[in-house]
Specification:
The complex is a heterodimer of chains A (79) and B (307). Chain A has 79 residues and is α+β, with helices and mostly antiparallel strands. Chain A contains two helices and three strands. Chain A has one domain: 2-Layer Sandwich (GMP Synthetase, Chain A, domain 3), CATH 3.30.300. Chain A has a three-stranded mixed beta sheet with strand order 1-2-3, with helices on one face. Chain B folds into three domains: 98 residues, Glutaredoxin (3-Layer(aba) Sandwich), CATH 3.40.30; 83 residues, Sandwich (Hypothetical Protein Aq_1857, Chain: A); 95 residues, 3-Layer(aba) Sandwich (Oxidized Rhodanese, domain 1). Chain B has twelve helices and 16 strands. Chain B is flat and about 60 Å long. The chains are: A alpha+beta (79), B alpha/beta (307).
């Protein structure tokens, strides 16, 4: 289950932000820490960078039984 | 989203330079992320507005939609959405948050402490026990609990002169201590320092049965609310208290936010919880009758039955 969620987070982020690299570290059940490196972050504020990632994973966070319950830490970096 | 709620957020954010939507309040953050942001803000600005999203489900969900941001806490500065815990942390570590809040590291720090003559005498006695090189240190923590202690100067310490005394303050405490007055009071229950910090947010204050009796005897303008259910009120009650589930609740709904309001129950536990909830609504002078009606029976009026 946990490994599936990690894979679906990675594919959601890397699918939405073409050419990005996403690393996911699982925490307590349902909690994950994400690091995303993407050239497309260049020139965007921290807020815009995080919004881009959050909107990519929003479908995984929807509903009471969402596989991704919470993002413990989100780090974005320009590639 | 609901337009009344949107208006509410618009006004809140327009009327305060810094607004933090969080879980809990400054004294008792109820989540690690909220607590972390509170600590960072505390080290930069003495006063800021917080909204406890746990107090109202529509605010909790509404602010997520309003900001288009999925998590709490959320920080607004000068009308602009800044971000959540991760962004605030990165900005704090880079010094950007300090600059945004108008507190560049090089700015001169204003710090004034007031020491009453009684406190100066007491502190002088305190100093007579000091080892050479020791000074009095004034500290404040994130819950606005204060401490006075003796100790050596540490790197970065600020030195404040109050009368003939020198006091040490850690630089990260300076903003939150500015304007604080230190008094020394003695009464029947003993003597001690009383520290009044104008930056501290309102909190529920403890009131003893004997103090409440004095207030009632003086005819002070105070609303006393009994939070117990009817079954308990029928067993024993205070003649001047109004029930929360009746006249007391109505009086509370129309009371000004500066009204002195005392909450009581059987032993003081339920009433403190009730008072903490009412505090979230912006009331400034809330008291809990410590020990409840039981303490009143035992220390003030034995004719009020215990149960």
């Amino acid at each position: 289950m946990g490994a599936d969620v990690v894979a679906s987070i990675v594919s959601a982020v890397e699918g939405a932000l073409a050419g990005s690299r996403c690393e996911v570290a699982p925490g307590s059940p349902g909690h994950y820490a994400l690091t995303v490196v993407w050239a497309g972050f260049s020139g965007r504020s921290r807020l815009e960078q995080q919004r881009a990632v959050l909107s990519a994973i929003a479908p995984l966070m929807k509903g009471a039984a969402a596989p991704l319950h919470a993002v413990d830490r989100l780090t974005t970096r320009v590639a | 989203m609901d337009s009344a709620l949107k208006d509410h957020f618009d006004k809140l954010i327009a009327s305060h330079d810094v607004v933090l939507f969080m879980k809990g309040n400054r004294q008792f953050p109820q989540c690690g992320f909220s607590s972390k942001v509170v600590k960072m803000l505390n080290s930069i600005v003495p006063k800021y507005e917080t909204v406890n999203v746990l107090a109202d489900g529509s605010v909790r969900e509404g602010i997520k939609e309003y900001s288009n941001w999925p998590t709490i806490p959320q920080l607004y500065v000068k009308g602009q959405f800044v971000g959540g815990c991760d962004i605030v942390t990165e900005m704090f570590e880079a010094g950007e948050l300090q600059a945004m809040l108008g507190a560049p590291a090089s700015a001169p720090i204003t710090l004034e402490l007031k020491v009453t003559p009684a406190a100066a005498d007491a502190l002088a006695r305190f100093m007579s026990e000091a080892d050479p090189g020791e000074l009095i240190r004034v500290e404040v923590d994130d819950a606005f609990e204060h401490a006075l202690s003796l100790g050596p100067r540490e790197p970065g310490d600020l030195e404040v002169t109050a009368g003939s005394l020198k006091l040490l303050v850690k630089p990260q405490h300076a903003a939150r201590l500015n304007g604080t007055s230190i008094d020394y009071v003695s009464n029947a229950s003993g003597a001690g320092f009383r520290i009044d910090n104008p930056n501290a947010p309102a909190k529920v204050m403890a009131l003893s049965a004997t103090e409440l009796q004095k207030w009632i005897a003086e005819g002070r303008d105070v609303l006393v609310i009994d939070v117990r259910p009817e079954a308990e009120r029928l067993v024993s009650s205070l003649p001047f208290a109004l029930p929360l589930e009746g006249a007391g609740g109505e009086a509370l709904a129309s009371a000004s936010k500066d009204k002195a309001i005392v909450f009581h129950c059987h032993h003081g536990i339920r009433s403190r919880r009730a008072a903490e909830q009412v505090l979230e609504r912006g009331f400034k002078k809330l008291f809990n009758l410590e020990g409840g009606i039981d303490a009143w029976s035992r220390t003030v009026d034995p004719k009020v039955p215990t149960y």
